[in-house]
Amino acid sequence: MSGADDIASLDFASVTPEEFARIVKGLSTKEINEIAQDATLRARVLKEVFGRMERQFKPDVAGSLDALIRWKVTGQGDTEDAVYETKIANATCTVTEGRSNAEPRVTLVMGDADFLKLVSGNSSPVTMFMMRKVKIAGDVALAAGLTRYFDIPKA
């Protein structure tokens, strides 16, 4: 069974964040990019990951933070870029698909493999930035500390 088959057969509703982190850790960048070539599967994975952000948000850590974070996950070949926005305000986190007209405090741009590694706790945002695997426009300090606002599992 390939990595794509593993992901395709997942019942995301029953997979814990820790299990998802372990699955991602076990996949190579090449395998993740193969998964991303299947537009339906890619959309399913991204929708699940962003859907979990609201549940894994730590309001006590965010405090009075008010920020719009735009995520652009770049596609390869015929795969289109995916854009999501995370709005943190009043100790809540709201995620929407697509690009709004609002001005984000920070925009993060990365490929599918780097995105999945970041959100599953398998890579550090600072290391990714230093290695130019993620591009950041706007508030770099917010981007560097973004993971502390979410309960991110360690694989």
TrEMBL record:
Q: Which organism is it from?
A: Streptomyces tabacisoli
What protein name does the entry list?
A: SCP2 sterol-binding domain-containing protein
Q: Which Gene3D superfamilies would you find in this protein's record?
A: SCP2 sterol-binding domain
Which is a Gene Ontology cellular component entry for this protein?
cytosol
Quote the PANTHER family the UniProt record gives. SCP2 STEROL-BINDING DOMAIN-CONTAINING PROTEIN 1, STEROL CARRIER PROTEIN 2 SCP-2 FAMILY PROTEIN
One Pfam match = SCP2
Query: Domain SCP2 spans what residues?
Result: 59-150
Q: Which domain of life is it from?
A: Bacteria
